[in-house]
Specification:
Blueprint: E1 6-10, H1 18-29, E2 35-37, E3 54-56, H2 73-82, E4 90-95, E5 107-112, H3 130-137, H4 143-146, E6 151-154, H5 157-167, E7 172-173, E8 200-203, H6 212-220, E9 227-230, H7 236-240, E10 247-250, H8 255-264, E11 267-270, H9 278-284, E12 290-293, H10 298-301, E13 308-311, H11 316-326, H12 333-341, H13 345-359
Parallel strand pairs: 1-2, 1-4, 2-3, 4-5, 5-6, 6-7, 8-9, 8-11, 9-10, 11-12, 12-13
Length: 361
């Protein structure tokens, strides 16, 4: 049987974000596939892309904005519409707003990331930004383009719902796995050994929307519990100036030290929206459950009672109540690890290959 030819498209390769990690996984799934994009900066993108055949649609259009691609959405769209159709049996488009616009003579499989601006509903903050208005005015899925996309795959259940509500598009759900750092062997963190037999863990930038302040206040109400927050950010000094004795802030840990934290934590705490929901899977590889806000990609990676539990509001009271409820719960580390393995990169790649095989029949 002849294997179908596959090409990959991604919006732009000018950063090292989660969507670009997913594009790399797609490249590992189809190692012979060329990668089409609008702009490629080898120094800014993940170095693994240097080993791939990357083709840019903007080589013939040097005046297009390259520092902030959002500013040139309309021009990029026209460039992709005028570019020659990609020769492949299946085009795998990894899209945050542009990649699904690449034309192909074959069939198209569109993977939609949760960070795609066109998924924002009209009452959200993005609507007030120039980029947000542009994304909605451009109508990312007009009917003539939708007809050329043979299948949509949503990165989360939230994305699936948004595609249906905003554009009437049906999609399967295939969560992206966490980066390989989740499997790094643990390395002891000397300054934390006195707490190694029990603490809750939060891994977060110290910024307002991550609700670190709410978590600290929750543990102020729980003097018999401990919280370690791993991360740094602009609010670090403010938090350090008023920490209760059962809360510590730690920064600068490498992957091995972070793995040690996951391994020794009683539970991971995620009190803010996580678009991809990766943090609970990183904890799950260590057999550690997660207490999470019921939002975003977390609803796909946390299974109530299996690898964690939810709370419904990012308030100190709701967080403290979730910690109390979890105290006497019997978590099974083996089942938690098995849940993480069910969303591994190998499973992700197998699912992508199955979608491509079905489309190419």
């Amino acid at each position: 049987m002849v294997r179908p030819s596959v090409a990959i498209a991604h919006d732009y390769l000018t950063q090292r974000g989660t969507a670009e990690r997913v594009a790399l996984m797609m490249a590992r799934a189809f190692p012979e596939a060329p990668i089409h994009t609008t702009v490629y900066d080898p120094d800014a993108a993940f170095p693994e892309f240097r080993e791939r055949r990357v083709l840019t649609a903007t080589d013939a259009a040097p005046l297009l904005p390259r520092d902030d691609q959002r500013l040139g959405l309309g021009m990029y769209r026209r460039t992709l519409e005028q570019a020659p159709a990609i020769e492949a049996d299946v085009l795998l488009a990894s899209t945050m707003g542009l990649a699904h616009r690449f034309r192909t003579r074959g069939r198209q499989l569109v993977y939609v990331h949760p960070t795609a601006g066109f998924l924002r509903s009209a009452d959200e903050a993005l609507r007030r930004t120039a980029a947000g208005r542009a994304l909605r005015v451009l109508n990312p899925f007009p009917r003539r383009e939708r007809a050329g996309s043979d299948r949509f795959v949503a990165s989360t259940s939230v994305v699936k719902t948004r595609l249906a509500e905003l554009y009437g598009i049906a999609a399967d759900v295939l969560p992206a796995p966490p980066p390989g750092a989740a499997l790094t062997p643990p390395v002891e963190v000397p300054g934390m050994l006195d707490w190694q037999h029990g603490f809750h863990l939060m891994v977060s930038r110290l910024v307002a929307h991550r609700n670190v302040d709410k978590a600290i206040e929750a543990f102020r109400q729980l003097p018999d519990e401990r919280l370690i927050v791993v991360g740094d950010g602009p609010l670090g000094d403010d938090f350090r100036g008023d920490l209760p004795p059962n809360v510590r802030l730690v920064a600068g840990l490498d992957d091995g030290e972070l793995a040690w934290c996951y391994t020794h934590a009683t539970a991971l705490l995620v009190p803010s929206r996580d678009e991809y929901g990766h943090a609970p899977l990183e904890a799950a590889y260590a057999g550690t459950p997660t207490l999470a806000l019921r939002a975003g990609g977390l609803v796909d990676t946390v299974r109530e009672g299996l690898n964690g539990a939810f709370f419904d509001a990012p308030t100190p009271e709701a967080i403290a109540a979730a910690v109390r409820r979890s105290r006497d719960r019997g978590w099974d580390p083996g089942s938690i690890r098995a849940h993480a393995e069910s969303m591994s990169e190998d499973r992700f790649i197998a699912a992508l290959r199955a979608h491509v095989a079905e489309l190419s029949r």
